[in-house]
Amino acid sequence: MRSIYSKVVLSLQLIVVYRCQALNITQDIQRCRFGDTDCLIESMNSIIKRYPKGIPSIGMKPIDVVDIMDSQIWNNAQRGPVWFMFKMFDQVNYGFENTTITKVRGFDRNPTTSHIEILGEIPSLIHKGMYTAVGKLLLIQMNATGEFISDFQNFKFTLKLKILLEYRNNKRYLKLYELVPRVSLDRWIIWLDEFFRENTDLTILVNQVFNAHWVEFWNELEPSILKVFRSVFTRMIEDIFEKVSYDDLFLN
């Protein structure tokens, strides 16, 4: 009996410690009044800098290493003398912990009256993973698998959020209905290992061409890349909206 009692007491103590730690974390977060954009920007930037590993108690995922779902960036029809398919998998982003939020809009008492917008910038956003490339360029057949690394330099983003309100336990929760990202950057650097496994010189040449003409490639691939970023930002935000009521995010 004493052993069971001791285990119960220990369990209760652990629960109390866990809850206190969670409360201390949330108390460290600066809450703002509805519509106080300067306060919101300051609070968001403080959270980003102080909690790169995330805050599970409020649904905030780690931002220093961000997993990315498998994605297909290029998918031409497999016919004619030139076609190309390019897929990425086992992907991660590094650099979101260096984000600076520059502007916010729409966090009013009634957030459904307008769009919510979040603007920010990242000095360098690194994208690493594996790729498969299959295609045909006139007489050259391509079938490659390897590692890639990409650097989006001076990465700036605007997120436009459409949200719905849900009521749970007499509190308002935000439901992310749609997220539309817009991005811009000063430079895009990418390296594809073993693009031509049997010909290192040709692999180097392909990478040099890509980086010399990155703007043209960006314009061609931007819609597909935006789908990837939409997924990344959505996964970052939606769990916070799910766990924390909108009213609890703000001062009364």
From TrEMBL:
<keyword id="KW-0732">Signal</keyword>
<feature type="signal peptide">
    <location>
        <begin position="1"/>
        <end position="22"/>
    </location>
</feature>
<dbReference type="Pfam" id="PF06585">
    <property type="entry name" value="JHBP"/>
</dbReference>
<keyword id="KW-0090">Biological rhythms</keyword>
<comment type="similarity">
    <text>Belongs to the TO family.</text>
</comment>
<dbReference type="InterPro" id="IPR038606">
    <property type="entry name" value="To_sf"/>
</dbReference>
<dbReference type="GO" id="GO:0005615">
    <property type="term" value="C:extracellular space"/>
</dbReference>
<dbReference type="GO" id="GO:0007623">
    <property type="term" value="P:circadian rhythm"/>
</dbReference>
<protein>
    <submittedName>
        <fullName>Circadian clock-controlled protein-like</fullName>
    </submittedName>
</protein>
<dbReference type="InterPro" id="IPR010562">
    <property type="entry name" value="Haemolymph_juvenile_hormone-bd"/>
</dbReference>
